[in-house]
Amino acid sequence: MAAKTAAERQAERRDRLSAGGLFRRRDIWVHPDDEPEIRALEARLRRRRLKSEDDDK
User: Fold this and answer.
1) How many Å apart are CA 30 and CA 27, to the nearest integer?
2) Secondary structure of residue 29 in the 3-state scheme
3) Half-sphere exposure of 47 (CA within 13 A, CB side)
4) Domain count, the chain
5) What is the pLDDT of residues 1-57, one digit of tens each?
6) How far apart are the first and last CA of the chain?
7) How many angstroms separate the CA atoms of 13 and 16, rounded?
8) Residue 12 resides in a domain
9) 34 inside domain
10) E strand map for the chain
11) Are 5 and 13 in contact (CB under 8 A)?
12) H or E segment at 6?
C-alpha cells in the first residue's frame, strides 16, 4: 500500500471533523507563543460542549 499524500491526509481530516459536527470558520494567523493558549481554549470549549450535550440527555 502506497503512502498517502498530504492532500489525501488533509481530506480525511476534514471529513472526520465534519462528521463530528465541526466546520471551518476561518484560518487565523497567530504568534507561535500564543498557540498553546489558543489550543487550551479550544480544548476547554470542547469539554464544555461535551458536558452540555451529556446534560441534555
Assistant:
1) 10
2) coil
3) 6
4) 1
5) 799 999 999 999 989 988 888 777 777 788 999 989 998 998 999 899 889 888 887
6) 43
7) 5
8) no
9) yes
10) none
11) no
12) helix 6-19
